[in-house]
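We store chain and fold; example below:
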Amino acid sequence: MRWRALPHAHLCAGMLLSLLALTLSLAANQNQVKIEQGSVFAPCDFAAIFNFGDSNSDTGCMAAAFYPEISPYGETFFHEPVGRASDGRLIIDFIANYLGLPFLNAYIDSIGGTSYRQGANFAAGSSTIRRQNRTFYDGGTPFTLDIQTAQFYQFKSRTSRLNNQGKKHFRNRFPRPEDYAKAIFTMDIGQNDIAAVIEKVGKEDSHAVLSDIVEQFATQVKFLYGQGARTFWIHNTGPIGCLPLSLHSIHDPPPGFLDHIGCINFQNDLAKEFNEKLKNIVVSLRAKLPDASLIYVDIFSAKYKLISNAKKEGFVDGGEMCCGYHENGEHVSCGNKGRLGNGTEIFGGSCEDPSSHISWDGVHYTEAANQWIANRLVNGSFSDPPLPITHSCRHSQMQ
């Protein structure tokens, strides 16, 4: 199965005005935040973002490397396909915007004078942490996490040499050597690893495989740390058992197969086990890398909360897909042509209002859903420790 696959008030103005000004600044997440023992820190002022992941945060890698994305992908915000598996922006786009940084360009997409001055994106659709015995046509990808971190190493090495040569043209397009320690390293990968485990349930020791996956993840975090990374924003994996593409193939499930909102229990249980192991490994890395800040972000809970409260939040049922044809047991994938059982040729187009849907194509989320989720991630509501992303570099100062 292929899982293609967001100045203090002057004291002389009086204590009341000072407190009011501080309260307003905190509400806007613009200036300072109070953390534990009364310590007050200014925002991190990240110089760049370096992202690693799968199709949930791929901004053009797979489209540049293999086949370009097709319509109606990208229709909502970009009004054309731009290599994102959604109708518009992804969570990483909203994160970049929230931090005052530009959208991330894919590392391997060099067309059109691409600038990497404030970061680069190494994420690629279908990517896994653990290498899989699959070809691209079977839903695999050559861009596993270890390859992505190797690409980062090459990127840093080559751009550092260009900067050292003192050529202004290159210096304006790439990060400065000192920017890497002041960058945020975002990581959102693991969904495709869980999908691979699901396919082999009963054929291998799932618990041992999940442990191996998170150990390999930790190895890559330590590698990035060795290359100067100091702030990590690490997403766990989402509720894979709630993806409509899987749900639409289920008929007459036995009691207990689905949970109270209609998601597949055993698939979500595997995701939860992975997430627990991931959190434990993040905690252990904090002890091994004491001057690094590692924030664990519970994206599973954020997505599950949205799906559970879909109608309350203004969306249709979370099991409905916006793009593609999915009726009477017949399916045509988003952006593709297909022929129904009665011989009718049909195009898997998008729904009339993508903003009313959570799921875009059965696996990926719509821009509206991505924005809903991003808004709740960046303020620290789902983070451990509970820091807003603007202050995520401060965790090492709290330990």
About this structure: The chain has a mean pLDDT of 87. The longest strand covers residues 49-53. The first helix runs from residue 15 to 27.
